[in-house]
């Protein structure tokens, strides 16, 4: 790994590469290496995955460095097993291609892997960063154009920060009721 | 009241404030008993309920997500319990459910409980909340879409009865964070305020750990006080003596409390912490082709868009009950219900149709998440095999908490049997048949490979029955071998119901009340049964009084 970068910077790049594998995004800048650029638009990293993972509320913030080191060990072994020669200047996970990152994380989260609970937890929060922006108040995330909520087409709140949908129904009978329906509206 | 040794003392101590606890608190307090409710979660109401996904907002404070081995449980964690976080769908269980045999080869329900004998108690709850029928004008776009898809496939579909005040509902779909608009008729609006008016007290953030027995035949209830924001932190502890204990901590917690109490109380019935059912639950996500929605179903919103409205609504509005046919063999009957899960819960387990890479994460997953507004979630409630078993209890509570709030690792193990797997497969195939017909959508079930199977309706881990070998409670909900301990929550329900269980849990709790009152009287408590509905309505009460055999 690059000696001019701190261990923590390498760990952060590793966690970014992990989160980017869960919800991939476009590169943030031309020589972005943690984000592989496997998808258009922002992914988990742009959505704030590292901020969410580091939120003490997740309960795993203190373990992130250890997780990064651990997955780099797996990445190193994966590269050796597959005859890859990743750039020695990069954290091992970051040095893998998007396809290889995906294959490795698929293996680590598979039903029989002994560490699956760790990696599923990191995947879960990476995913949440994208589709809920759970490190931010949602009204602030919406105002800032949060990439995940925007990609999903999440509706804007009213001016008071609450959601209301006055148009909500097709307003007509769309199926016949089950013949056994009781007077209380329940199944017989 | 306080004893000379300083230990607080009440007639009835209730653990949990969901349906089983709130109904008990109301009837016992109204009848004259001194009642204290200990609730492990916070006490939120009205403006406390946030429209906010930020960790620490109301949804993480009031929800509990326990990951087990093969099964994850979602449940309430607040004053009002499940009623505060749920979607308020309140159908009665179909008649055949009460004749289910399940894994034991004979009828699993007590002989005294049938749909006919439970109907008067369903009526009590229906009057108390109240529960009302919805019409098609109440049905949301997603419910209407499911109904139209069912009709297109030659099926029927019904608006489900709900405990929602439609005049206050904004269809914001934040129900799982608690209702900001007081539209959901949770227990915060009926049984609980009525219990408080009769002198019952509720202490939030009090998590009961275990019971011990006192020399007078009563019980000492030991609790921890939980930190307001970091639920992993214990802020204190204490104990309270009671003549009667009503356990209603939920099917994921009640058996754990009893298991932890076993060294002090003595042997627990075999069925404590066994026969757990996830209500046979299963989810599918359909990704709609908007053009086909317009062309096949003739649907359009005022803006001309056919659907693209997964965010709009109020949980489940429409169910298909075509497979709730008592003539069909057990394990082949189920209901299908349109549902909504917010992002986070509702997206992580959804799978990519025809994925070439991983199905639940990655580049292809992101592409389907971009179409989230065209998603329709279909919820199947099937007949599982009561195959869940609780392992040894964690140090405190019902889980080893991972996050400050909401997320924990629990002792439940669930290895689905061929019967359960067959029911899920049948339901999946049926959803596919309805939703993929003529290219309407693409459908995939949620993966069980990430957090195992999952349930929002944990049941049966401390169930009623006639057979002591396979039921922890007698048909009066009293714990076998431990007189004076009653269980009235979802853990008392014998098995999967094929529909949303809240009304049945509540009806069973109502039905248990006269017996608990009688047990309290036998222990010297001056209490009587016969309170009207919380708002004073009397018709359902008057209908049950003649059914009771007077002591």
UniProtKB/TrEMBL annotation, chain B:
Highest taxon in the source lineage: Bacteria
SUPFAM superfamilies: FAD/NAD(P)-binding domain (SSF51905)
Domain Glucose-methanol-choline oxidoreductase C-terminal: 454-509
Pathway in which this enzyme or protein is active: Steroid metabolism; cholesterol degradation
Keyword Transmembrane helix: no
EC number: 1.1.3.6, 5.3.3.1
Xref: InterPro entries: Cholesterol_Oxidase (IPR052542), FAD/NAD-bd_sf (IPR036188), GMC_OxRdtase_N (IPR000172), GMC_OxRtase_C (IPR007867)
Any one GO BP annotation for this protein: cholesterol metabolic process
Keyword set, alphabetical order: Cholesterol metabolism, FAD, Flavoprotein, Isomerase, Lipid metabolism, Oxidoreductase, Steroid metabolism, Sterol metabolism
Pfam families for this protein: GMC_oxred_C (PF05199), GMC_oxred_N (PF00732), NAD_binding_8 (PF13450)
Required cofactor(s): FAD
Domain Glucose-methanol-choline oxidoreductase N-terminal: 71-274
GO MF annotation: an example: flavin adenine dinucleotide binding
Family as reported in the entry's similarity comment: Belongs to the GMC oxidoreductase family.
Name this protein carries in UniProt: Cholesterol oxidase
Lineage: Bacteria, Bacillati, Actinomycetota, Actinomycetes, Streptosporangiales
């Amino acid at each position: 790994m690059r000696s001019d970068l701190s261990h923590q910077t390498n760990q952060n790049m590793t966690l970014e590469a992990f989160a980017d594998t869960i919800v991939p995004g476009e590169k943030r800048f031309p020589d972005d290496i943690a984000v592989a650029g496997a998808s258009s638009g922002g992914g988990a990293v742009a959505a704030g995955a590292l901020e969410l993972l580091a939120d003490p509320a997740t309960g795993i913030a203190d373990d992130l460095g250890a997780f990064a080191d651990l997955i780099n060990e797996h990445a190193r072994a994966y590269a050796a097993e597959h005859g890859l020669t990743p750039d020695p200047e990069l954290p091992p996970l970051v040095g893998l291609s998007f396809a290889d990152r995906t294959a490795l994380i698929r293996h680590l989260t598979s039903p029989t892997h002994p560490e699956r609970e760790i990696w599923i937890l990191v995947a879960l929060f990476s995913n949440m960063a994208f589709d809920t922006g759970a490190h931010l108040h949602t009204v602030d995330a919406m105002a800032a154009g949060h990439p995940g909520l925007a990609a999903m087409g999440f509706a804007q709140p009213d001016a008071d920060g609450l959601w209301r949908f006055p148009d909500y129904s097709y307003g007509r009978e769309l199926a016949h009721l089950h013949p056994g329906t009781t007077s209380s509206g329940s199944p017989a | 009241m306080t004893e000379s040794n300083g230990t607080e003392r009440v007639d009835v101590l209730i653990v949990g404030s969901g349906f089983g606890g709130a109904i008990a608190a109301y009837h016992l307090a109204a009848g004259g008993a001194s009642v204290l409710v200990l609730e492990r979660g916070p006490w939120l109401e009205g403006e406390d309920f946030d429209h906010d996904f930020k960790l620490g907002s109301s949804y993480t404070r009031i929800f509990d997500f326990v990951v087990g081995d093969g099964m994850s449980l979602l449940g309430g964690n607040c004053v009002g319990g499940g009623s505060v976080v749920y979607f308020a769908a309140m159908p009665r269980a179909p008649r055949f459910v009460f004749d289910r045999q399940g894994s034991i080869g004979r009828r699993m329900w007590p002989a005294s409980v049938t749909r006919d004998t439970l109907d008067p108690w369903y009526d009590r709850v229906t009057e108390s909340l109240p529960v009302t029928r919805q019409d098609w004008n109440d049905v949301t776009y997603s419910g209407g879409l499911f109904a139209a898809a069912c009709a297109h496939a030659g099926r029927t579909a019904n608006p489900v009865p709900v405990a929602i005040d439609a005049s206050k509902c904004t269809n914001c779909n934040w129900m799982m964070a608690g209702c900001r608009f007081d539209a959901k008729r949770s227990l915060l609006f009926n049984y609980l305020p009525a219990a408080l008016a009769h002198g019952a007290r509720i202490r939030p953030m009090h998590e009961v750990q275990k019971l011990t027995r006192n020399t007078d035949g009563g019980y000492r209830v030991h609790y921890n006080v939980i930190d307001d924001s970091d639920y992993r932190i214990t802020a204190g502890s204490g104990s309270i003596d009671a003549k009667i204990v009503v356990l209603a901590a939920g099917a994921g917690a009640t058996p754990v409390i009893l298991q932890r109490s076993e060294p002090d109380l003595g042997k627990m019935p075999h069925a404590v912490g066994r026969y757990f059912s996830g209500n046979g639950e299963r989810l599918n996500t359909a990704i709609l082709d908007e053009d086909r929605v317009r062309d096949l179903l003739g649907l359009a919103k005022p803006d001309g868009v056919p659907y693209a409205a997964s965010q709009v609504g109020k949980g489940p509005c429409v169910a298909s009950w075509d497979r709730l046919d008592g003539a069909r063999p057990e394990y082949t009957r189920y209901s299908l219900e349109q549902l909504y899960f917010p992002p986070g819960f509702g997206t992580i387990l959804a799978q990519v149709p025809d994925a070439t890479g991983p199905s639940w994460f990655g580049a292809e997953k992101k592409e389907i998440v971009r179409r989230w507004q065209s998603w329709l979630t279909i919820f199947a409630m099937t007949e599982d095999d009561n195959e869940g078993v609780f392992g040894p209890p964690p140090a405190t509570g019902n889980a080893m908490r991972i996050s400050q709030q909401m997320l924990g690792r629990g002792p439940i193990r669930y290895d689905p049997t061929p019967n359960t797997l067959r029911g899920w497969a049948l339901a999946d195939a049926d959803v596919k048949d309805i939703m993929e017909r003529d290219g309407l959508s693409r459908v995939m079930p949620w993966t069980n490979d990430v957090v195992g199977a999952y349930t929002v309706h944990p049941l049966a881990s401390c169930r009623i029955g006639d057979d002591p070998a396979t039921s922890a409670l007698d048909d009066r909900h009293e714990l076998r071998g431990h007189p004076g301990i009653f269980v009235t929550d979802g853990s008392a329900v014998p098995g999967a119901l094929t529909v949303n269980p809240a009304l049945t849990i509540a009806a069973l709790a109502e039905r248990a009340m006269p017996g608990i009152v009688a047990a309290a009287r036998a222990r010297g408590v001056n209490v009587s049964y016969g309170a009207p509905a919380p708002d004073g309505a009397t018709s359902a009460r008057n209908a049950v009084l003649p059914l009771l055999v007077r002591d």
